[in-house]
Design a protein that fits this description.
The chain is an alpha+beta fold and 590 residues long. Helix content is 43%, strand content 20%. It folds into three domains: 6-132, Adenine-n6-DNA-methyltransferase TaqI, Chain A, domain 2, CATH 3.90.220; 183-323, Alpha-Beta Complex (Adenine-n6-DNA-methyltransferase TaqI, Chain A, domain 2), CATH 3.90.220; 388-588, no CATH class. Strands 2-7-5-6-3-4 form a six-stranded mixed beta sheet. A four-stranded antiparallel beta sheet has the order 12-19-16-17, covered by helices on one side. It is globular and about 90 Å long. The relative contact order is 0.08.
């Protein structure tokens, strides 16, 4: 990372082995962290802290690192790493979690030991050097990484929603064209054909496979005639409707493509040739992949599971399939091909998305990530200055007030992983407007118990048709109404709303900075300090804190904002706002 200083892992972290064998957990209400990617649960906890959990003894998962903050128990195959006292105000463990995972292979290579059973050598791991930039730099890097991660997850969520909509649309078209049509037996529209092959020992025979769950064909390695021996194989031609007779019951049905032509399959792959005057193979394939079609295939595949659940060929030929007019079938298949083209483009884009985060991490740990949009001027206590970005022009005429609030709710849920009630939305709307006024409607805010409050905004939220409510742990929170989810997602992805979304995400980036623990407290403190800077037109920490002493609240155990938040946390917030170039905006009233 250029000139960034480094420290040994053992200088920064205490670590000990976890306490629970993975096979002995009892599912319960507490997180159980193992070497696996996904967490389990347990009925009791052992730790209540912020920690990294590093897999040292599970060969398939060596080096995987998890971050956790709260009550949990850990597997005896991971090190539980906690900050030493002298580093608790100098290190954000999430930064090192990203580092250890990004350089996982390199670190494992340096620290592993053993031959038959590889594990991480404790001494070697202790002597691994890890970077230690300033805390503010760590926090900015983490905020940027998690901001990008949130956007990637949102894009994937949006695509999943769109894919569901497309599949529903396609199926509705299928229902329309098959309503009240004649049903003909497979034997009459797509009989079985066998093309036996005479094996030549020194010749190669490339095989074809069919994936389950309607995932299409795939190519197997070629076998020589000697390897095939006395087994029977059959030639497959492009356009064949191919069934795997042992896995057809779980959707292993496909149409052979041009690139599959003249490949071979064992006796377990059944080819049918459609009479194209009556039925197209792609249409028949679609039918057999529908719930109705799979139900019929299952009925013709007696037995338990796997190779004991074999499709009966005579029964297959007696299955009656819907036969709409051939022109309607052609139109339907043309529609399927267009969907395939869209899916192909989406898969290419998904592949590009998966490369974004590793590239981002690589830049982060080489000192290039922040240099792209942040100018650093080192000061005392690692305070940095950030370039002030100009206010963002927003084309808002096409958006209504309700849709704007719904987009904010959706982005908060997507980026922060939580849904929020009226109090959280009130403070977030104020924060967005304070840093970059982009909303159509302007609300008047007053100082209230939990932060800024607008009676007008309260009524707007209450009557918002895009928003519904649900109860989580006795708290009523906002969510997007089911019937409007697509509308809101489309609005977020609409290019015309790009600057509005950017303005919201800029505030959510601040929320992900780990200046204090709980998201709700973090939002409240940021909101409080922002409001006081605007009201008092000062940035001195002591003066702002005096203002917090005068801000009366009615929260359990607290009489003022100063009772709830420390001067240290208040100072951190002000430094964070300075590092993002936002203080001048608040003072100038932009």
């Amino acid at each position: 990372m250029g000139n960034v200083k480094t420290k040994l892992i053992s200088d920064i972290y205490n670590y000990e082995k976890g306490v629970l064998q993975s096979s002995k957990n009892t599912p319960g209400n507490f997180t159980f962290i193992t070497a696996a990617e996904e967490f389990k649960t347990h009925n009791e906890y052992y730790y209540d802290t912020e920690a990294l959990c590093y897999a040292f003894g599970a060969s398939g998962s060596l080096g995987r690192t998890h971050y956790y903050n709260g009550k949990f128990i850990a597997s005896d195959l991971v090190y539980v790493m906690t900050l030493k006292d002298e580093y608790k105000n100098k290190v954000d463990p999430r930064y090192h979690c990203y580092y250890l995972n990004h350089y996982r292979e390199t670190i494992v290579h340096r620290a592993k030991s053993g031959t038959s059973k590889i594990s991480i050598n404790q001494n070697a791991f202790s002597n691994i050097e890890i970077p230690l930039p300033s805390l503010i730099e760590q926090q900015l890097i983490v905020a940027k990484i998690e901001g990008i991660k949130g956007k990637i997850e949102f894009i994937k969520q949006l695509r999943d929603e769109q894919e569901k909509d497309i599949l529903q649309f396609i199926h509705s078209k299928y229902i329309d064209i098959t309503r009240d049509v004649i049903m003909l037996a497979m034997n009459n529209v797509a009989p079985i054909i066998r093309r036996p092959v005479e094996i030549i020992e020194d010749k190669l025979y490339p095989e074809l496979g069919v994936r389950s769950f309607g995932k299409g064909t795939f190519h197997k390695p070629a076998l020589s005639g000697i390897e095939i021996g006395t087994k029977k194989i059959f030639q497959i031609k492009a356009g064949d409707l191919v069934f795997s007779n042992v896995f057809a019951w779980e959707g292993a049905i496909a149409v052979a493509k041009e690139e599959d032509n003249d490949r071979f399959g064992s006796h377990r792959f059944i080819s049918c040739i459609a009479d194209k005057g009556n039925a197209l193979p792609e249409f028949l394939c679609y039918y057999f992949r529908t719930p109705e079609g799979l139900e019929v295939i299952n009925a013709c595949s007696p037995g338990g599971a796997g190779r004991n659940k074999t499709l009966g060929l005579d029964k297959l030929m007696r299955i009656k399939v819907p036969i709409p007019p051939i022109e309607l079938q052609k139109e339907f298949i043309a529609l399927l091909h267009k969907v395939d083209q869209v899916n192909h483009i989406c898969k290419e884009q998904e592949s590009e998305l998966t490369e974004v985060l590793p590239a981002l991490l690589d830049k982060a740990f080489k000192g290039k990530l922040l240099s792209e949009d942040i100018v650093y001027k080192q000061k005392e206590d690692y305070v940095f200055e950030r370039k002030i970005q100009p206010s963002i022009p927003v084309a808002a005429s096409h958006r209504n007030d309700d849709l704007e609030l719904a987009m904010i709710v959706a982005l908060m849920e997507s980026r922060l992983g939580n849904t929020y009630g009226e109090v959280g939305i009130q403070k977030t709307v104020f924060n967005i407007e304070a840093f970059n006024p982009v909303l159509n409607r302007k609300y008047d805010f007053v100082n209230y118990h939990y932060g800024t409050y607008s009676a007008e905004l309260k009524e707007t939220l209450k009557s918002n048709p895009f928003l519904g409510k649900k109860t989580i742990k006795d708290n009523e929170v906002f969510t997007i109404s089911t019937g409007y989810k697509k509308n809101v997602l489309n609005a977020i992805s609409d290019k015309i709303n790009k600057n509005f979304i950017l303005a919201v995400n800029n505030v959510l980036d601040l929320y992900t900075s780990p200046f204090i623990g709980k998201h709700t407290d973090k939002i409240e403190l940021l909101n409080t300090v922002t409001k006081l800077i605007i009201d008092l037109q000062i940035t001195d920490s002591d003066a702002i804190y005096q203002g917090m002493k005068k801000w009366e609240i009615k929260q359990q155990g607290f009489k003022t904002k100063a009772d709830k938040f420390s001067l240290t946390d208040t100072t951190k917030i002000i430094e964070l706002l300075k590092s993002y170039g936002l203080v001048d905006k608040l003072l100038s009233g932009e």
